[in-house]
Amino acid sequence: MDDKVNLLDLSIEELQDMLAGMGQESFRAKQIFQWLHKGAGEVDEMTNLSKSLRQELRDVSFIGKFKIYRKFLSQTDGTVKYLLESRDKNIIESVLMEYRHGFTACISSQIGCRMGCRFCASTGVGFVRNLSPGEMLDQVLCIQSDSKKRVGNIVIMGIGEPLDNYDAVVKFLRLVNHPEGLNIGLRHISLSTCGLVPGILRLARENVPVTLSISLHAPNDRIREQIMPINKKHSIDKIIEACKIYTEATKRRITFEYAMISGVNDSRGNALELAGKIKGMLCHVNLIPINSIESADFRKSDPKTIEMFKNILQQRGIETTVRRELGTDIHAACGQLRRSAVSVES
């Protein structure tokens, strides 16, 4: 890789500083920023810049665009799963999903993941590196360009742990929210974390009030440590305490994601224990019928068990939903396609 800067990583203020060093007027930064966020793939597409400035930009920078490596369209619900190839030939995943309220992009924050959750398809392939803010942004731009659909909502729930790539993720949030760019409201963005407590507390102070989704998946530390090694460092009680601080600071409701795993975390007693821990919080629970993974001996709970679990939570005043399964025919669960692609090529 060269030492040139990826223009998609830069804020307007950083573009202004770069242009000042080139002896250019500061208003050019806004023009460049707008071109980038419209999806420009080459500096020469920026036709309101002089040829000499475009040449200077080519000398010191590049526009870090992903290539579509493979694309899969669900025949059941229209979900589109993308395998995208980076400049350094790594593969990431992104998904376009349609809901009643519009189109949602699910993006990755890392290439691989360090968290090691046993039920996740990302586990076992290994961690390569963090994604930059511009690489996260370009997933949205790439999806929009290919689908010709305007993305109105973003979930940072693809491969990777967002709070393990904290600075880049927060910068991405500010970039994608910028009124001169895609201008996607922070209340239309969800960030999913397995519960890195320092990151949750830090995010509460950032003034970026996104919806926080916590991958909880267990009602107690004993079960959670079996399926999520990170729990040995950040216990459920500490995570819930941090979530209360986040809701107080942002006035935003927390979503607790709970993968329903048969015989592991789906009993009546588990539901009652979970309800006792989160009752009274500004939150809701999203029950997830888990996806089958070849290397993990886990099965999804049956529909009657999921309904029982939901009813117990609802009867105790906890808003609970069951996630609609999208793209099951194209392995749309995060990590499944990248896992198979990396396995084939390695």
How would you sum up this structure in a few lines?
The protein has 346 residues and is an alpha/beta fold. It has helices at 12-21, 27-37, 51-60, 133-147, 166-177, 197-203, 221-227, 236-250, 268-278, 303-315, 336-345; strands at 5-6, 61-62, 67-73, 80-85, 91-99, 102-106, 110-111, 129-130, 151-156, 189-193, 211-215, 254-260, 283-289, 319-322.
SS class: alpha/beta
Low-confidence segments: 334-346
What is the straight-line distance between the termini? 22 Å
SSE topology string? EHHHEEEEEEEHEHEHEHHEHEHEH
The 3D shape can be described as elongated
Strand order of the largest sheet: 3-4-5-6-9-10-11-12-13-14
Q: Helical amount among residues, as a percent range?
A: 25-40%
In terms of quaternary structure, what is this?
single chain
**What's the pLDDT, averaged over the residues?**
91
Residue share in β-strands? 15-25%
Put simply, the count of helices is: 11
Walk me through the structure:
The chain is of the alpha/beta class. It is built from 11 helices and 14 strands. The strands form 3 sheets. The protein has a 10-stranded mixed sheet, with helices on both faces. A two-stranded parallel ribbon has the order 1-2. Helix 6 links the parallel strand 10 and strand 11. It is elongated.
